[in-house]
Design brief:
Blueprint (H helix, E strand, L loop, with lengths): L9 E5 L4 H12 L3 E6 L2 H11 L6 E5 L5 H14 L4 E4 L14 H29 L2 E6 L12 H21 L4 E8 L5 H4 L3 H8 L10 H11 L10 E4 L7
Parallel strand pairs: 1-2, 1-4, 2-3, 4-5, 5-6, 6-7
Helix pairs in contact: 1-8, 3-4, 4-5
Bound molecules: nicotinamide-adenine-dinucleotide (NAD).
């Protein structure tokens, strides 16, 4: 795939059970990394882990609801008891398409709890250990929705814009310790969520992409792994993976 120097390293991936997260688990496993796979959906997450690694030596499924700070802390304690984390990929997210008039305060808080507060809390916990060890790679999965406005995207888009800002601030704070923090901003990725909008809506959205198609999860995973590379001089960056849908 891409030699990111992950051989023997340990990668913690959130939202690992399906979609891009599952593609990231596969890609890191193929690179020879140990993978701590964290998801709220224990059954699907375990099935993926068993499918790839019957020995249980390489992939450790961990169940947690990232909205719950105590559960998040307990999950990270479990991971760090297993192996020290070299790479953190904040991928889990809660999508929400709701007009400005419909969105409830509870929905707003729920989106921010997963998409931003959990990223802050988990990154801080993991980065403290990375700082002590003098090495770390953190990659945040943001979205084009955080870069350019879309109707019905008030909560989701704003949380992803916050993630891009947080990426830069953490990058500045952690650079002296050998820890890089970067983000990717995909447009549409070919996952179950996107397919569920139906062929006509998908064709309409695809027609707005200069490359004329949506991304495969593997294409996005490759950019994430590049940003997680052992040797890198990139930090605080947001890499667009959007087929030209937004050029800046
Ligand atoms: N699919 C797209 O078109 C697209 C486009 C741009 C950005 N993204 C971003 O890519 C990332 C992955 O997207 P996807 O389409 O694979 O998503 P998905 O919905 O298919 O998977 C998300 C995973 O996160 C887990 N999760 C959700 N809430 C959680 C919680 N509270 N605690 C623990 N786990 C939780 C889910 O169980 C699921 O396995 C997200 O950050 C998303 O915002 C996706």
């Amino acid at each position: 795939m891409l030699d990111a120097g992950l051989d023997g390293r340990t990668v913690l991936i959130t939202g690992s059970a399906q979609g891009l997260g599952a593609a990231l688990v596969r890609a890191c496993h193929a690179e020879g990394a140990h993978v701590a796979a964290l998801d709220i959906d224990d059954e699907t997450n375990r099935a993926l882990a068993n499918d790839l690694d019957l020995t249980g030596e390489w992939i450790r499924p961990v169940q947690a609801d990232l909205r719950d700070p105590d559960a998040l802390a307990a999950a990270y304690a479990e991971v760090r008891d297993w192996r020290p984390v070299d790479v953190l990929i904040n991928n889990a997210a809660r999508p929400l398409a709701r007009s400005l008039w419909e969105i409830t305060p509870e929905e707003w808080d729920d989106v921010f709890a997963v998409n931003l507060r959990a990223v802050f809390l988990l990154t801080r916990a993991v980065a403290a250990d990375m700082r002590d060890r003098g090495f770390g790679r953190i990659v945040n999965v943001a979205s084009i929705a955080g870069q350019t406005p879309r109707p019905t995207g008030a909560a989701y888009g704003t949380s992803k814009a916050g993630m891009i800002a947080l990426t830069r601030v953490f990058a500045a704070e952690l650079a002296p310790y050998g820890v890089t923090v970067n983000a990717v901003a995909p447009a549409m990725i070919d996952t179950a969520m996107v397919r569920s909008i139906g062929p006509e809506a998908l064709a309409e959205l695809t027609s707005q992409v200069p490359m004329g198609r949506i991304a495969t999860p593997e294409e996005v995973a490759r950019v994430v792994l590049f940003l997680a590379s052992r040797e890198t001089f990139v930090t605080g960056a947001t890499y667009d993976v959007n087929g030209g849908a937004l050029m800046r």
